[in-house]
Design a protein that fits this description.
Elements lengths: L4 E4 L9 H4 L2 H16 L3 H10 L4 E2 L4 E2 L4 E2 L7 E3 L4 E2 L4 E2 L2 E3 L3 E4 L2 E3 L4 E2 L4 E2 L4 E2 L4 E2 L4 E2 L8 E3 L4 E4 L1 H10 L2
Parallel strand pairs: 2-5, 3-6, 4-7, 5-10, 6-11, 7-12, 10-13, 11-14, 12-15, 14-16
Antiparallel strand pairs: 1-9, 8-9, 16-17
Length: 171
């Protein structure tokens, strides 16, 4: 189960209440910096923008590929460990607006994690250290440490033990 906090709304759908949730100027500022980072070809600049202006926790030597889209409303709720790779056009969400409620949850991505291109990570997700997420995966539940996961819906392809066994055979 994803770890999100639920906030019920009444009347119009929850997205109509967006600026009761987060200040308009925060969204504008975040949008400008996120778009700058998305198109920046320099990894150190991206990490500087994420850490300094968006208050994300980004580990040493982590790489965000071109076009990665981090949550525009709550980027400070995203943490990515050291030496991880976030693939091209990946989306990392810390919020979701539904009809009768909205939800907010932290996203925690461990150390040495590989997230393939075009992946979507939903709010309230934890991805363990040394995990691999296949390209085009919808990460809708936590990923255990060391696992290889993929698909939509996401499933475990190899467990940590199976991955270690496969690595042992390749040496």
């Amino acid at each position: 189960m994803r770890k999100t906090k639920r906030y019920p709304v009444s009347g119009a759908n929850s997205l109509w209440h967006v600026y009761d949730t987060v200040p308009f100027w925060k969204v504008v500022k975040n949008f400008v910096f996120i778009q700058s980072a998305r198109y920046s070809p320099v990894l150190s600049w991206k990490n500087f923008i994420y850490r300094t202006f968006l208050k994300m926790e980004v580990g040493k030597e982590t790489s965000f590929a071109l076009m990665v889209m981090v949550d525009v409303m709550f980027p400070e709720r995203i943490k990515v460990g050291a030496n991880s790779v976030i693939g091209y056009n990946t989306t990392i969400l810390a919020h979701e607006y539904l009809i009768d409620e909205y939800r907010i949850g932290d996203v925690i991505i461990g150390d040495r994690v590989l997230v393939g291109a075009n992946t979507t990570i939903l709010p309230g997700i934890t991805i363990g250290n040394d995990a691999i997420v296949s390209a085009a995966t919808l990460v809708n539940k936590d990923v255990p440490e060391g696992c290889f996961v993929g698909g939509n819906p996401m499933r475990i392809i190899y467990t940590k033990e199976q991955m270690q066994e496969r690595k042992g055979k390749n040496i």
